[in-house]
Write a structure and sequence with these properties.
With 73 residues, the protein is mainly alpha-helical. The protein has helices at 2-9, 17-27, 47-56, 63-72, and strands at 31-33, 43-45. The protein has a single domain (2-72), classed as Orthogonal Bundle (Arc Repressor Mutant, subunit A), CATH 1.10.10.10. A two-stranded antiparallel ribbon has the order 1-2. Residues 3-54 form the Transcription regulator PadR N-terminal domain.
């Protein structure tokens, strides 16, 4: 996920940035944790999370990438 963000946003995230963001998204019920798969800890976007993205992405610089990926979800 960090490498993906770096590739389209052109920024490097510091240590702990991703885990902090995941915690906030889960607290807000925008994502939900799925059962762990070996070392992977996958998440799924919730309906509330998808609606939030649809509403806010058009105002963001990464909107094109986010909306394209949301359409594939």
């Amino acid at each position: 996920m960090i490498k993906c963000i770096e590739s389209f946003a052109g920024i490097s995230l510091g240590p702990g940035t991703l885990y902090g963001a995941l915690s906030r998204l889960e607290e807000r019920k925008l994502i939900t944790a799925l059962p762990a798969d070996d070392r992977r800890c996958p998440y799924r976007i919730t309906p509330a999370g998808a609606e939030t993205l649809r509403r806010t992405l058009p105002t963001r610089a990464v909107a094109k990438t986010g909306l394209r990926r949301l359409a594939q979800a």
